[in-house]
Amino acid sequence: MIDSIEIVEPALETLRRLNGYRPYPGLVALLKDPRVQHYFTDGRAFLMRQPAQYDVMEADALRPNSSLAGNLYSVEYFELLRDRLRPGGIAIGSSTPIAFDVEAIRQRIQSPFTRDYYLTGGIDIEKLLAPHLHSKRLFHRPELNRSALTDVNTDLFPKDEFMLPWTESGEIEAFRLP
Questions:
Q1: How many CA atoms lie within 13 Å of 74's alpha carbon, on the beta-carbon side?
Q2: Integer distance in angstroms from the first to the last C-alpha of the chain?
Q3: Chain centroid offset of residue 80 CA
Q4: Backbone angles phi, psi at 101, to 5 degrees
Q5: 29, 85, 107, 153: least buried by Cβ within 10 Å?
Q6: Alpha helices (H) along 22-146
Q7: What is the mean pLDDT of residues 103-128?
Q8: Span 114-124, average pLDDT
Q9: Yes or no: is domain 2-98+135-162 CATH 2.60.120.430?
């Protein structure tokens, strides 16, 4: 099963209506997929109430510096995600090493099942992933010493509400209205 959590309940009906006007293969596939169970609530609250663990969790979140985004980028939120992951699961990161085998990925995206699955949604998976398979990867491993980090976002002290545009000299840049 796939749990889809949306905080704005009319969004699903809006997607259905949009699909009626102009069908998009990815949207058609989503709306017809019998594995998808829709819930209308706050995603973080949903995870706090459910003991379920997941293989993959993805959030269509606000940018980190957007107003009210602090609770989606806090230490506590990432701990909640970690606690709801199955061993080997992934959500932004993972509590276990993530294997990144370029050759294995190439083989998977060239398999008829994978290619056909993504083409059903109108996605050329080989073209989409090509830039990522040829770029240098950056790894942040669990053993990285984070004890010296002081600029962290927590539920009690969210950074998003208090971010100010600082200049390189450390002075606050003047606010400019459009």
A1: 17
A2: 46
A3: 14
A4: -105, 100
A5: 107
A6: 25-32, 43-49, 75-83, 102-110, 112-120, 125-133
A7: 91
A8: 91
A9: no
